[in-house]
């Protein structure tokens, strides 16, 4: 014990332990034995400390608090992970583009951009999304839910970005600048549309006379 000897090896994976009781506890990982049930929800655990930790989800106990902002956590590992927000530590790099993340789940989510994986389908129309939050936001199109009201005129929106865009009307903001002539616009799409004037792009042809227009509205007027 004092020399660091670990005389009790696991017969399955070879990991060694200082006490037989530690080895016996470890063996449950391999056997699948879970002798510690939660008396509230019935979920079972192979270690007593895992059950104790789980019980906090029922009791609401959060014994680990952040020394910087005071936020509390059920597990110490959650607190340590949270601390990276304050320290700026980003130990999870993307091997494809090099972008770094402070949480492993953020890296996993980012990787879907490269792989094209979209594991969250809409149950109504089948459109797929990289994040579940994106799917939930999309669902408001089908439900008609508009939880973002304008405090000035009362108009409601299904998306936060739609409200932010709308607010520029009240504020008179024109945040999108044409790099060629300096004209400003409220919407990015308006800049894109305007740039066709400079580029000479006319993607809207008249089916009757063949005359082409840079704007759909100009074609409609024609």
TrEMBL record:
One Pfam match: zf-C2H2
Where it sits in the cell: the answer is: Nucleus
Q: Name one GO cellular component term.
A: nucleus
What InterPro entries does the entry give?
Znf_C2H2_sf, Znf_C2H2_type
Keyword Protein biosynthesis appears in the UniProt entry: no
In its UniProt record, a GO molecular function of this protein is: zinc ion binding
| Protein's UniProt keywords contain Zinc | yes
The alphabetical list of record keywords is:
DNA-binding, Metal-binding, Nucleus, Repeat, Transcription, Transcription regulation, Zinc, Zinc-finger
A GO BP entry is: regulation of cell differentiation
- Predominantly, its location class is nucleus
Q: What is this protein called?
A: Gastrula zinc finger protein XlCGF8.2DB
List the top taxonomic levels of the source: Eukaryota, Metazoa, Chordata, Craniata, Vertebrata
Gene designation? LOC106520237
């Amino acid at each position: 014990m004092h020399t660091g000897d670990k005389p009790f090896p696991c017969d399955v994976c070879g990991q060694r332990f200082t006490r037989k009781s530690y080895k016996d506890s470890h063996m449950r990982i391999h056997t699948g034995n879970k002798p510690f049930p939660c008396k509230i929800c019935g979920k079972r655990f192979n270690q007593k400390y895992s059950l104790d930790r789980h019980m906090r989800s029922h009791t609401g106990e959060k014994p680990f608090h952040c020394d910087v902002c005071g936020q509390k956590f059920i597990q110490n590992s959650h607190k340590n992970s949270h601390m990276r927000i304050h320290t700026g530590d980003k130990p999870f790099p993307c091997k494809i583009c090099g972008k770094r993340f402070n949480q492993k789940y953020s890296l996993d989510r980012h990787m879907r951009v490269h792989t094209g994986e979209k594991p969250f389908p809409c149950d109504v129309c089948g459109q797929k999304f990289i994040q579940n939050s994106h799917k939930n936001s999309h669902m408001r199109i089908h439900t008609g839910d508009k939880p973002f009201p304008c405090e000035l005129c009362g108009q409601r929106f299904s998306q936060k970005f739609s409200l932010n865009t709308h607010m520029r009307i009240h504020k008179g903001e024109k945040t999108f600048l044409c790099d060629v002539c300096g004209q400003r616009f409220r919407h990015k799409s308006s800049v894109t549309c305007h740039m066709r004037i400079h580029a000479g792009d006319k993607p809207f042809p008249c089916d009757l006379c063949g005359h082409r227009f840079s704007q759909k509205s100009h074609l409609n007027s024609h």
